[in-house]
């Protein structure tokens, strides 16, 4: 096999378990005959730089080893100045985080044998990529690519809380506790949203812009989402009361929430969001800033291994 794989390994993901387990995974992957090189990430956003370097050096398969945050940084490293560095390169995901929401839609397992199978015999699938423009905490406008979900409102507020606490309880419990604690203090906001040519001006809870189906450590927020259909599925949680939210919250895990009268669903390619109050944005499980945001889809942009 002449295909060389470059792994970007985030040793602090999954509360440090990835760093401890990687030497064994490395041996197992190499023993299967895969030609593997790797680098550890040393600081936030390092994975983006390492990916750019690996692609420029000619590697065509990049393996993200970490959580959804690492996957997002690796995805961002596929691009340089708005262009894919190599249109023939593909992303493979060895999900070692706490949330693992992206692979739930793609349908890849988390164990090393499944990853070896994907690296050796996996098929290439073209998927849509989202690009979100928003305001960083430092005050400057920036852009970030995403593969899974971007959301504005209670989900982003929960991520802000969860990413600043230990995720030792693993994804499901960390996000469940985070969401319930956030709900107590969260206030619905006056949003102005434009989805292609539709404009909505209303007090709302949240806007979820989904390419994948899951977020928040296993919540099936957009059961209809398809990563290759060229559209976002946009879920708007309306001006719901805390009691109503709490009552219906368990349904989100099963994906049976969509018939709630305060939920709206749109398909769209171009979304602009602003609010009278401060509102946080989440991108693939990271919480990098606030709105105003402009979010666009790049249809069938990226090759992933499935
Ligand atoms: N060496 C490092 N030291 C500190 N932080 C790092 C390092 N390398 C990467 N990071 C940061 O670690 C954060 C968490 O990574 P990641 O999201 O992959 O893991 P996780 O939080 O365990 O998983 P998930 O998002 O799926 O719950 C990212 O924001 C990333 O920028």
From TrEMBL:
SUPFAM superfamilies referenced in this protein's UniProt entry, alphabetically: NAD kinase/diacylglycerol kinase-like (SSF111331)
Gene Ontology BP term (one): phospholipid biosynthetic process
Keyword Iron-sulfur: no
InterPro entries cross-referenced by the UniProt entry: ATP-NAD_kinase_N, Diacylglycerol/lipid_kinase, Diacylglycerol_kinase_cat_dom, Lipid_Phosphate_FormReg, NAD/diacylglycerol_kinase_sf, YegS/DAGK_C
Keywords, alphabetical: ATP-binding, Kinase, Lipid biosynthesis, Lipid metabolism, Magnesium, Metal-binding, Nucleotide-binding, Phospholipid biosynthesis, Phospholipid metabolism, Transferase
Superkingdom per UniProt: Bacteria
TM ranges: none
GO molecular function: ATP binding; kinase activity; metal ion binding
Residues in DAGKc domain copies: 1-136
One Pfam family hit: DAGK_cat
Cofactor(s) annotated in UniProt: Mg(2+)
GO CC term, one of those recorded: plasma membrane
Record family assignment: Belongs to the diacylglycerol/lipid kinase family.
NCBIfam families listed in its UniProt record: YegS/Rv2252/BmrU family lipid kinase
Annotated protein name in UniProt: Lipid kinase, YegS/Rv2252/BmrU family
Source organism (scientific name): Lutispora thermophila DSM 19022
Lineage: Bacteria, Bacillati, Bacillota, Clostridia, Lutisporales
